[in-house]
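Hi W., the S-adenosylmethionine complex you wanted:
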Amino acid sequence: MSNDAVYASGLLNRALDPATQPPEIRTFLQAEIELLDDIIADGMAVIDVGCGTGRHLAMLRHVLRIGVGVDYEHAYVVEAHRRTGGGRVHFVTADAARLPVRAGFDFATCLTNTWGTMSDKEGVLSEMRRCAPHAGTRLLSVFSDASIPARREWYSRFGHAVVNETPESLLTDGGLRSEHFTETRLRSLVGACTIRPLAGIAYAVTF
Ligand SMILES: C[S@@+](CC[C@H](N)C(=O)[O-])C[C@H]1O[C@@H](n2cnc3c(N)ncnc32)[C@H](O)[C@@H]1O
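Structure:
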């Protein structure tokens, strides 16, 4: 099973259920929210790539001039729209490597190791660069090696036992393949970027 099929089976809703989340994962999710609170200023136009059910744009909706969330899993987009859509926040079903929007965003995000589950990583970076054209206005949050024990626990709690571990990824019996990164690997994939540790198990990468 591919990650596409795993997401289509509704994995995200189980993963976002706090009951499945070890404390390290909850701390990481909270750290991402605090980071967004620090970065996103009043009146910004923001695109969230791999937005899932739209929780980050929902949180930011009162400060944004415009928010666009893109996800290839239509059921998540429908749910995001039901919860938060309308007004200044919009959700679109599309592939992150072929974003159906023009440039003109102040900031682009790809959060919660979403990029670490995407196959065309370079294509996604390129689209984020196109949509938010200024250096330093694109943010990835990705897992580091230190996340492995907490992720093993988290994945197994939402029904995906880890069956294979490599220096770059975990693979579960349900078919989820999720990568983790070293600073060196991030620099080789992203190029010029700023990397900051996040919650002890992840990195915030701006480029
Ligand atoms: C780890 S979840 C995170 C969702 C959301 N960012 C959050 O933090 O709640 C990853 C999301 O990326 C979406 N996704 C994965 N690959 C994608 C792609 N190539 N294009 C668009 N969306 C993708 C999945 O459907 C899923 O909703």
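The chain is about 35% helix and 25% strand.

W.
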